[in-house]
Amino acid sequence: MNRVKVLQIIPNFGYGGAERLTVNLMKYLDKERYEIRAISMFGPLHTELEKILKNENIPVYYLGKKKGFDPRMFFRIDKIIKSFKPHIVHTHRYVLRYVLPSLLLHKVPVKVHTVHNIAEKEVDKVGKLVHKIAFSFGVIPISISRLVSESLTSVYGIKNIPLILNGIPVEYYQKVNISREEWREKEGFQKEDFLFVNIARLAPQKNQALLIEAFAKGPAKHDNSKLIIVGNGEERERLEEITKLHRLEKKVYFLGIRTDIPDILNASDVFVLSSDWEGNPLSVMEAMAAGRPVIATSVGGVPELIQNNITGILVPPKNVNAFSKAMLMLIENKDLCQKLGEKAKEVAEKEFDISVMVKKYEKLYESLLQFKLKKGASLL
What we know:
380 residues, Rossmann fold, 2 domains, 6-stranded parallel beta sheet, 16 helices, 44% helix, 16% strand, elongated, transferase
C-alpha cells in the first residue's frame, strides 16, 4: 500500500516547545502508514532534535532563510512541494506566509496548521492577515488548549476548531543518566540545597525578570535556596544585570542551553514558570513527568495542566508577591512539595503521554483525507 506523504514545515529545529512537539510527532507517527519529510526554513543548527530526525531517517530540507522577509522561500518551498507531492502539509508558527501560495497552487489535499500560542501572540499583523486568508481557503487550524481555541475564535471568527493537547514522551523524562547527588556534585551544588529550576527561552514572554524578583523578595534569604535558569535568548544580559542588582550572583545560576534536561529535573526540587502568556507549555508537562511540583502563572493552557494545590501551585501573572509567597511555601513545607510532585507524576503518566497526542493527529489526518476523497478531490 502506498504511504500517505506528510510534509512538516517549521522555521527551525531549535530548542522551543513547538520544535520539540513537531519532532516528537514525526518520530512517533506510524511509519508504515506515513512517509514523512520536513522543511526547516533556516539552515541546520546541529541540535539534539536534528539528531533525532537523522536517527529516524526523516529527510529534512534546509532552505537557508535570511533574517527578515526572504522572497527566495516561496520558490524553494514550491519546488519541494511540486517534487514531493505531499498529501498532507502540516505547518507551524509563522511559516504559512511563505507556504500558502504553493498549497493553493498545487491543490494540496490536506492543509493543517498547529497554533502553538494564543492567536493574539502567535504571529505579527502580516501573519494574522495571511492566517485569516489561509483559514478561509481550507487550511485547518489545530488548537493545543481551550484558551487557544477561544483566542482563534476571537481573532479569526472561526469555530469548531480541532483540539489536540500536547504530549511528551513521559518515560524519557523519568530516565536519568546520573543520580541526583552526582549531578549536584558535578555542577557545584550541595546535597542540602533547595533548587528551583526554570527551563525556557530567555524571552520577554517567559518573564524570568519576575522570577528573579520573586526569588529575591524572600526565598533567596534561605541559606540553601538556589535558582537555576536553563535556556538562552535575547533577555539573558538584562536578566544577569537584574541578578547583580540584587547581589544574587551566588544564588542565581544561568546554565545556558542544555541537553541533560531529565537529569536537571531529577536534581531539582521545584519547577517554576513565570510566563506572561502561554499556549500549552511542554516544559510543565516534562517537569510533572519527572515528579516535580510546579509553580506557574495561570496563563494560557497552564490551568489545563496543573490542578491548583494538587499537582502544583497557580499564581496570577505579573504578580511578584504571589510568586514569591508560593516559592516560600514549598521551601518551608517539604512534605507538601513531595505530595505535589507525586501527584504531578501520576497525572502526567495518565494524561500527557505522546502516544495519546499522536493517535489524535493520525485520526485527524485520516478523517480529513477521507473527507477530501468523498468530495472527489485527487490525492495527487
